């Protein structure tokens, strides 16, 4: 009898666990959309390996123009930020300070297209 009770307990435990597993498999990271993922990657780069945060703040000019201002100008001129970060287009925001930004292009030029797109998405997210 005790054996039976134990087996039943074990069964209940296993079936419970199984249910949890299938739930996870059915909805893998469903709560986060592709766009949000891109935004997260962009922020990670901006705050992490890109070190962009040290010169660019969301709404206010510090060493570099604010993220918002850059996004506004790029949007208004329909310009491609990815090209700028690959050093394939000229500065359009504050060309007089370009030399300060230019040093960073050695880093951004090594970014993958996906990373550049993510950074761009992050900049544009400040317009909303
Ligand atoms: C050492 C300070 C510094 C760091 C670090 C820095 N920036 Fe800049 N950035 C500037 C300055 C100053 C300008 C204004 C000059 C200019 O417009 O090129 C600028 C301008 C820009 C522009 C506008 C370029 C244009 O068309 O004029 C973009 C886009 C930009 N930065 C993105 C980034 C990203 C992305 C990073 C991180 C990978 C970064 N910056 C890191 C100083 C910096």
TrEMBL record:
Residues 37-127 form the Cytochrome c domain. GO terms for molecular function: electron transfer activity; heme binding; metal ion binding. The keyword Metal-binding applies. It comes from the Bacteria. Pfam families: Cytochrom_C (PF00034). Keywords: Heme, Iron, Metal-binding. SUPFAM superfamilies: Cytochrome c (SSF46626). This is Cytochrome C552. The lineage of its organism: Bacteria, Pseudomonadati, Bacteroidota, Flavobacteriia, Flavobacteriales.
């Amino acid at each position: 009898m005790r054996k039976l009770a134990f087996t039943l307990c074990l069964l209940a435990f296993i079936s419970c666990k199984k249910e949890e597993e299938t739930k996870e498999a059915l909805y893998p990271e469903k709560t986060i959309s592709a766009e949000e993922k891109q935004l997260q990657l962009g922020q990670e780069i901006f705050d992490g390996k890109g070190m962009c945060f040290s010169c660019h703040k969301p709404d206010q000019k510090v060493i570099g123009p604010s993220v918002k201002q850059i996004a506004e100008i790029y949007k208004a001129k329909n310009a491609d930020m990815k090209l700028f970060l690959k050093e394939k287009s000229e500065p359009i925001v504050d060309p007089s300070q370009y030399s300060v930004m230019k040093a960073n292009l050695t880093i951004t030029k090594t970014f993958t297209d996906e990373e550049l797109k993510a950074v761009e998405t992050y900049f544009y997210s400040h317009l909303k």
